[in-house]
Give the backbone structure.
Amino acid sequence: MIFFIFGVTGDLSRTKLIPALFRLYKENLLPKKFHIVGFGRREWSQEDFLDYLNESQDHKGSQFKAFISHFTYAQGNFDSLEDYKKAGKILKKIDESFGFCANRLFYLAVPPQFYSDIFKNLHASKISDACGGEDGWSRILVEKPFGNDLKTARSLNLLLGKLFKEDQIFRIDHYLAKETVQNILAFRIANNIFDPVWNKNFIEKVELQVFESKVVGSRGAFYDGIGALRDIGQNHLLQMLSLIAMKRPEHFTVHEIRSAREKVMTNLNPFSKQSVVRHSIKGQYKGYLKEKGVQKGSKTETYFKIKTFVNTPEWNGVPFYIESGKGFKNSEVKITVHFKGDKNEKGNVLHFFIQPKEAIELVLKGKKGGEKFEFEEHRLGFTFPKDNRRDAYEKILLDCIAGDHTLFASTKEVEAAWKFIMPILLHWKETKLHVYPQNTDSTNWNLTNNEL
Ligand code: BG6
């Protein structure tokens, strides 16, 4: 099998993709015969490339040495058909060394503005044609954000539809592949007791939060054109929201799960100009303007919170809050489901701790000791087991090799998510950008607008 990576010297390849491939290699989970071709713009020789791999990864031992002997550098520009044809010759040589025509997995670890050039040239150069006989395949893994807005996402989808078959395309949302995110669905499917109360009659509100201590760092130029809502909201948070609000599928099939998620995405309550003003808020951490690559006076948000609703019979009227920010004191991803209480008492709360704490906890109440009939809170929960773990990028690669689309976003989901956030992006131009200090503790965070 051949992995062909676009953007092999980028941040994502360095920090997530190559380490994940190495872990799979060490566990013998990559196909017996495999090769990795890194396609990049830098004028590098094969030696320069190997030096780069050695320097950019912490591993040194003989296993890593053996691993990188499977890498070949292919210099080229994303918009040059000739360079793809040259890379095709490299692929042919690899096939010859294998003694068969290998399956090919193309990984786009590059910003979305390069996608359409890459799709067109992959197709025109024919290097993405499957050649491994009847069961042979060629697949394309595309990173998020898929497009920059609804229009670009649609035109990319149209282009992909013209050039490739839908089952060749794997649109990544690495949150879907996190063990603790997969556990949301497992929890719902495996615990029937929650099913009857998993709706507007019993749930008061749901909060979904992704807080990061990370700042934009070396990704300034890229991030500045994107912002937090596109970076985390349009994908990771909406996908987690879908897993909470989707109908519990009867069968664990790709089709049922994806269409249940799609149904949530397509039923998100559309934002009007007025609701953007009332139900959203955005912020930027102090010091963001000094980050490398950030435009002078940039109004890009590094924090947002929005309140939305899912217009399905099960969830009508239940607010879902999605919130994310960079530059906070603590990194924490969690989902909190608040059950309704009675007039005097708050209801029970169910926490899905996604990271770094990995647990599910239900806050229950019992009688407080003493003469009075008063309540106190207790937690019932479990920590996600640490053994047999797969990191999200390992899972993405393994599922793509297996041809399993369950944990990848469909065309419909991606377009529905863009459709939902477009009015917010549009009307945000007129709303205030709050500046917040770095290292703010998200648990004491109260940047809010009265109606949120
Ligand atoms: C990426 C975003 O999709 O997710 C980054 O582009 C963000 O800005 C990252 O930092 C968070 O992922 P994780 O797995 O570290 O929570």
Observations:
- The pocket of 6-O-phosphono-beta-D-glucopyranose is lined by residues 212, 214, 231 (CB under 6 Å).
- The longest helix spans residues 227-245.
